[in-house]
Specification:
Blueprint lengths: L1 E3 L10 H9 L5 E3 L16 H14 L5 E6 L1 H12 L4 E7 L8 H24 L1 H6 L2 H9 L1 H5 L1
Parallel strand pairs: 1-2, 1-3, 3-4
Helix pairs in contact: 2-3
């Protein structure tokens, strides 16, 4: 299984899921998108196709020909794009809360308003919701704030 994180929270957000899957015997590859983790110095690509190619490159490096690709938020969008453009590399795509703002005008209003009021960190807080945000550890909230410019891009 290949896990693709979303924007804002980074690869650490899928670590508990990766651990649980591995404990259950699954082979799990966590893709670190450009701008995060060991790839933090790299600017993220502007188009989802480049993210798909990054996932394929990570699979190739790990010797994985086909896999279930699961993502959340922006990672879900990458998984769906991969299902459309590279079905030959997929067993299945799992998309948790894909970024579909164009389909939901209220979400677009939330995004624009949060960005205008407080930038990328405010956007992630708004999308997470007050209860989820309050439940995060201080270190997790600090990591989101550090990634605010990446979210804005």
């Amino acid at each position: 299984m290949v896990l693709v994180h979303g924007v804002g929270f980074g690869p650490d957000s899928v670590a508990p899921l990766a651990l649980a899957l591995r404990e259950g015997g699954a082979m799990v590859l966590v893709v670190e998108r450009r701008g995060y983790g060991s790839r933090a110095a790299l600017d993220p690509p502007d188009d989802v196709g480049a993210h798909v190619e990054d996932v394929i490159a990570a699979m190739d490096a790990a010797g994985v020909a086909r896999a279930t690709v699961a993502g959340m938020s922006g990672g879900a969008t990458v998984a769906l794009a991969m299902a459309i453009t590279r079905p030959d590399r997929l067993v299945r795509a799992v998309a948790h809360e894909p970024a579909v703002g164009a389909l939901v005008p209220e979400l677009g209003q939330l995004v624009r308003g949060a960005l205008a009021q407080g930038g990328g960190a405010a956007l992630v807080r708004a999308l997470a919701g007050p209860d989820t945000w309050a439940g995060l550890e201080v270190a997790e909230r600090d990591a989101v704030v550090r990634r605010a410019l990446l979210v804005e891009r």
